[in-house]
Every structure is written in C-alpha cells, then in structure tokens.
Design a protein that fits this description.
Two copies of one chain form a homodimer.
Chain A lengths: L1 H14 L3 H5 L2 E9 L4 E4 L1 H10 L7 E10 L2 E9 L4 E11 L2 E8 L15 E2 L2
Parallel strand pairs in A: 1-6
Antiparallel strand pairs in A: 1-2, 3-4, 4-5, 5-6
Chain lengths: 125, 125
C-alpha cells in the first residue's frame, strides 16, 4: 500500500537523522500540527530546522511499532529516543501525489494506573 | 471500507452510552491495552464493566475527528467528554471477521509549547 510505503520511508530518513531528506517527502504546502500544545509548523524548511535545533543527547533513534494506512491517509506509532530522552509519537499523515501534505502528531506520556479499575486490569509486563 | 464502518459503529454505540452494545462488537479473545499506564483488560465483560464503573459527571459524549483504516486495522482520533472531564483517545483497532479483537489506546494530554521552538511555530487558534 502506497501510503504505508511513504510513511515507512519518512521514518527511515528520520532514523538516518537526515532531516533534509525527510523534508523532501513533504509537499509544498506542508503543515504539521501538535494539538496538545496547540502549535503549528508550516513548510518543510521550518520542519527541517525544528528537528535540527531540537536539543538532543545523541543521534535520534526511531522504532516503528506500527503503520496503518489507506485512502490517502496513514497513522504511525513510533518510539523515539536519543539515548536519554524517550517519547512515543502517534502521527496522522495526509498524503497527496506521493507527498506528505499534513501531519498531526500526538505525544502520549506515561501515567499511573488508576486504583479504581485495578480489579479489572492486569499489568503489561 | 469495512474496518472504518465497524470502528464508526463502535463509537456510535459508545456515544449512546450503551457499553453492552459496544461490547458486542468485540471478539471472544478481545484485549485492550493502555501502554501509557501499562494496563491490559481482557474480554468484553470487563470492558463493559470498566466503562459502566468509570466515574462520570454525566453521559459520555464522543466526537469522532477521524478514522483511518485498511488491511484489517484502523485508527480513530476521538474527543471524549462527560461535560466536565475532557480527553482525547487515539485508538488502534485490530479487526478479524467483523469483530474487534485488539484495541491499543493512547490518551495524550495538553502541554505548554516549548519556548525554544517559538520562532518556528504559530499557535493553533
């Protein structure tokens, strides 16, 4: 499936820490949105700069857990680390003519399991 | 697309607060995982009970922002509120023979935009 191939290629280029190469997969009117912080980045140039400037302890590693795609859209679940910082990115891609035109990204953080449902759950080891 | 229809129907039944009806869409070996809290729930019965017992200020409302699907998988982006509590659920569905067999769900929370990329972003209004 074409959407999933493009998303996989995007993460391969990110994993090479070659943000310019990843940026080459973005369409001319590319927009990235982070709804949690209500931030929007427009254009590949700012996307590349943001990644290059992001404070890191070492090269970024990306572990793709899953890519779901179809109908010009796709979603990835990716673990991100620089060896010190660890995060999980859930990324909704919109694609058109082989390019990524829109990316809406979520960064869920760990939280403690609530006590009031402990009788219904088991821990993931 | 069949995956997206089943996921939409799941959220329609959740929006009716009819958790038993939503549970009827789950397969016999259904598993729900919340990676952030490392919790796992097994089986439709516990899923239904967990939803019925969850502390709420009123009926749950679910606003489906997007459903992406294909190849036996699907992802939804849904806003959840009981009129007081507000949350966002990103749900990865695995489907088989018209039933939901696995659900991996993320609950991203708001955070403050970092100052060090303010020169590259604009606020989402």
């Amino acid at each position: 499936m074409r959407e999933r191939e493009i998303i996989a290629e995007f993460w391969r280029r990110m994993a090479a820490n070659d943000f310019a190469a990843a940026g080459a997969l973005l369409g001319p009117d590319f927009v990235l949105e982070w709804p949690q912080s209500r931030e929007r980045i427009r254009g590949a140039a700012r996307f590349i700069q943001m990644n290059a400037e992001y404070p890191a302890h070492g090269p970024w590693q990306f572990t793709v857990q899953r890519i779901v795609g179809g109908n010009g859209e796709g979603v990835s679940d990716v673990e991100v680390t620089d060896g010190v910082q660890k995060a999980r990115a859930i990324s909704f891609f919109t694609l058109s003519e082989g390019k990524i035109t829109r990316l809406v990204e979520y960064w869920p953080e760990p939280y403690d399991p609530p006590a009031n449902r402990a009788h219904l759950v088991e821990p993931i080891s």
